[in-house]
Amino acid sequence: MYSALKPILFRIPPEQAHHWTLKSLSMTLSIPVANAFFRSRFRLEHPKLNQTVFGLPLPNPVGLAAGFYKDGPHYQEMTTLG
Fold first, then answer.
1. What gap in Å lies between CA 38 and CA 36, rounded to an integer?
2. CA distance 32 to 9
3. How far apart are CA 7 and CA 65, in angstroms?
4. Global pTM?
5. Quick one: which of 44, 74, 73 has its CA closest to 61?
6. DSSP code per residue over 42-68
């Protein structure tokens, strides 16, 4: 899928591509069957991945680019993707 979308996304301004991608992801994950598919496909739980950050237990390491939505409006979508 990425190879098909890459040429399109690289022709539009980065900010617009970013918003379009997140909007598409939100719309896709609002469909229960699609949400269940993504959760089963991308979610990984293993005891070795458990982390505790500032006293908060997390099932796996957290890694987002600096400034990736400081207010976290798409945290649920990111959780679905693992």
1. 6
2. 26
3. 23
4. 0.65
5. 44
6. H----GGG-EEETTEEESS-----TTS
